[in-house]
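Notes to self after the Tuesday call (sharing in case useful).
The group wants a holo model before anyone commits to mutagenesis around the pocket. I volunteered. Ligand is KE4. Logging inputs and output together so the record is complete.
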Amino acid sequence: MNISKSEQLFEEAKKFIPGGVNSPVRAFKSVGGNPLFISRGEGSTMIDADGNEYIDYIGSWGPHLFGHNPEFIKSALLASIEQGTSFGAPTEIEIKMAELITELIPSVEMIRMVNSGTEATMSAVRAARGYTEREKFIKFEGCYHGHADYFLIKAGSGALTLGVPTSPGVTKGNAADTLLADFNDLKSVKNLVYKNKNEVAAIIIEPIAGNMGVIKSSDEFAKGLRELCDEENIVLIFDEVMTGFRVAKGGAQEVLGITPDLSTFGKIIGGGLPVGAFGGKKGIMEKIAPSGPIYQAGTLSGNPLAMAAGYAALKHIKDNPGLFNELEEKALKVDKGFKDNLEKLGKNYAMNRVGSMSCMFFNENPVNNFADAVASDTELYGKYFHEMLKRGVYLAPAQFEAMFISTVHTDEDLDKTIKAHYESLKAIL
Ligand code: KE4
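Result:
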């Protein structure tokens, strides 16, 4: 496979951009080798700078539920750009977008648009702190909520992949109010809450984690969090930046049947453009400036282009209720194919999946929490990643991420992927 153009571009990029990338997980650091520079995305495939074609299962880390450049999003964008790109003033499309999300996610009564998942989670924690007048908050080891200082404590995704779950530059003061609990371990949460009685403003969680690989909250854990927050007047924040509109039309809160007080969104709601959002109970959201005193702002928040793309994406979800059944069928096919391969190879790797978001861990024991996840053989994952890449299948370049199936992955794509999975494992085991 000739990747000389990517290699040359990477050398160029490293002169001007830290590590040659604008986000660490793209750098292939944990799987070895150099990142491929992508020149085009079309449907379920991406084409790199050397013209190599790949079946894409990253989907830009989640946004591309409908594959690359779907016609209905492209045409919405082109129509919007004719009117201009940004006004720094309210526009009608922002109302339509907010209204549609409140319609699709019953727990969201009001919502504020921002420009990334990080801004969404950062603002949601601030809202909870302002609303409760408390300072501490609880996150879970291995969950990733973006790169705001107080989240980069034993975080997942790129922080975990690069082995720096607690980042330099995060001050002790900033970390002091971040309390760490264990995912799927209600006792660890209760211990923190009772030890910090009336001081905990919020519990923020990826209810279905996607940043330590995929790990679902158990029903009793999710229910226990809700009950604990009710008893202790703590704001329960579901970080659905990845799971929102991914694992079900109503996200992880629909799958788990739990109503959070606030939710955060990103990825799919931007239709491929930079969008994040936080929303939930009116009583909390009304405290956000300018209706309330809790300050939050953004030059390009609610940007008309991003709203046009995001609205087209969410409207497509609303108008195609069968879409999640289609996704489930495709995901089931891959699940079965991978499990058949593992059986043939005598391997019992943990396969966690919720809807079209899944992860195969190089760990033959069940993976239900952070400790289980990090026991996986990340070196073997790196070899697997490159074997799959050689066979034209582009997965996340890190064990602690997710594989995303889109509505446009064809049967042929999936068959080719299942075959490549068998051959790749055979080659490395
Ligand atoms: P952004 O600031 O990257 O838009 O969103 C942060 C974020 C918040 N919450 C969850 C649950 C997330 O998954 C993310 C971002 N996800 C990673 C991928 N695991 C983004 C990829 C990257 O960092 O480049």
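Two things stood out.
Residues 28 and 150 are 26 Å apart (CA to CA).
Residues 23, 25, 61, 116-118, 121, 144-146, 157-158, 206, 210-211, 239, 241-242, 266, 276, 401 surround KE4 (CB under 6 Å).
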